[in-house]
Amino acid sequence: MNRKAVYFTKPGAVEVRQETLPPLTPGKVLVETIFSAVSSGTEMLVCRHQIPSNLPLDSTISALTGNFAYPLKYGYSVVGRVIKLGQEVDHLWQDKLVFAFHPHESHFTAALEELLPLPENVAPEDAVFLSNMETAVNFMMDGQPIIGEQVVVFGQGIVGLLTTSMLAQMPLGKLVTVDKYPQRRCISREIGAHCCLEPARHPEKLSRLLSSENSHGADLIFELSGNPEALNQAIDAAGFDGRIVIGSWYGQKSVNLELGGQFHRRRIRLISSQVSTLSPGLTGRWNKARRLAVAWRMLAGIKPSRFISHRFDVSQAPKAFQLLDNNPGEALQVVFTY
Length: 338
Description:
15 strands; single chain; 10 helices; alpha/beta; 27% strand; 6-stranded parallel beta sheet
């Protein structure tokens, strides 16, 4: 049996290849993919060769082994259906809908521990957002927003919108978002942001929004834009002892921080956040399974399938990445269908 697989073959080049499926071994199942989601921030770094070559693809995902070297398969958000069982697999897995952290492929074999059955209250089109929702939940756990705080989110791509959606459910003093694309700013306001600004054009307006009789500057900022320049804007917007959660992964893009101004005097804290691990301060009570359970509940409530802007048959993957490269403002969430 053959499958279709998306390959990044060289900088700016994507191919869909036909390849033979590996044999189904005992204890594994064969999954037929229904949807896979493109994580545009990370995957465009892969597409543009902006990933440090000495890093492993992902040491926590068994389907992503080896280092960043072309040609390679990538991606980590797949929803499919179990269509065949290997020996020693319980028949209850037959036809089960599952999520997997797996590259873009029409079919794949997997061990049971690599699959997450979909809850009954989460549709496949919402479930394909699980990896990004888990990332957003991790940001919330690292940022620890407090009732009444002034919070700013730089970047309203998918992870930014998911983070904003959760923050909007809290009794914050103010929730301000920043993004350069009009469509994303509009959606951000619709899901609960009090105000959404363009990044560089209104720094004085952001300062005014965050200044009042009782406070000056943001208590908590999430930098999720993928733009290294946003970090300096975040530092400018932070109040005394303000926390800046850096969720963006810049790859090989350098960051020139201006630390000679208010950074030291305001005792601003920069917090690294990455979903592969949990904050060390939480690991006594939290693990990945507990965090994933929260992400599933958030998916059921937020229903992020409304953020899907484009659907491409997987055979059109090169066209999809061309769209993301040339017209990112038009594409919010790109999903491959199979």
